[in-house]
Amino acid sequence: MKINRTLAYDLPPEDARAMSCDPAFQERKCADAGALDWNVRVTERPDGGTTISTRRTLPTTGFPSMLRKLLPAGMVSTEIIDWAATAEPDGTCTATLRVEFHGAPASMHGTIRVSPTAAGGSSITVDGEFKAGVPLIGGKVEKLAAPIIFDVIDSEQRTGRAWVADGV
Q1: How confident is the model at residue 138 (pLDDT cuts 50, 70, 90)?
Q2: pTM of the entire structure?
Q3: Does residue 168 belong to any structural domain of this protein?
Q4: Taking CA 116 as the corner, what is the angle to CA 111 and CA 122, rounded to the nearest 5 degrees?
């Protein structure tokens, strides 16, 4: 299932990327999304890029009953964001995105693209493919899980806007 969401921040792309790479922002993002626990690791790579690894547990309260049956103890995921070392000439920054859902035969792979806007801010596009490898019902699981994935992405935008408003 295609996952596509566009976020916006009143920051230039370089600053939006830097916000994403700040461990305190990643931790706040987890807390704001309602995660029960999390572990964030930000690593500067020798090539100048940055890898962000975030493992979190989200409660399944409010999940559709079919998903709660598959994930009775909560949804544990690991999100890996690999930011490229350099921006494009126009300031656009790109990253690959991978999310593994532990204890569930599901994953998401895609890209994050942070582009400048005419007003001096950033447009962040998350473009991915979510797959649930459950025989016979994989498509149904994908449709049930998609709104939850969108909610997590939307929560990140709220966190980012609060981060900017707080002047962090």
Answers
A1: confident
A2: 0.89
A3: no
A4: 70
21: in domain: yes
- Structure tokens of 20? 């994403």
Using DSSP's 3-state secondary structure scheme, residue 147 falls into helix
Give percent of the chain with pLDDT exceeding 70. 91
Neighbouring C-beta atoms of residue 15, cutoff 10 Å: 15
Question: Token pair of 25, please?
Answer: 């922002």
The confidence score (pLDDT) of residue 68 equals 62
Residue pair 44/50 in contact (Cβ under 8 Å)? The answer is yes
Place of tokens 């049930």: 144
CATH number reported for the structural domain that contains residue 75 in this entry: 3.30.530.20
Give the mean pLDDT of 81-90: 94
Domain count within the chain: 1
User: C-alpha dihedral over 25, 162, 37, 123, to 10 degrees?
Assistant: -60
- Single out the residue of 73, 75, 39, 54 nearest to residue 148, CA to CA: 75
Structure tokens of 146?
Answer: 């998609």
How far apart (Å, rounded) are the C-alpha atoms in residues 8 and 125?
9
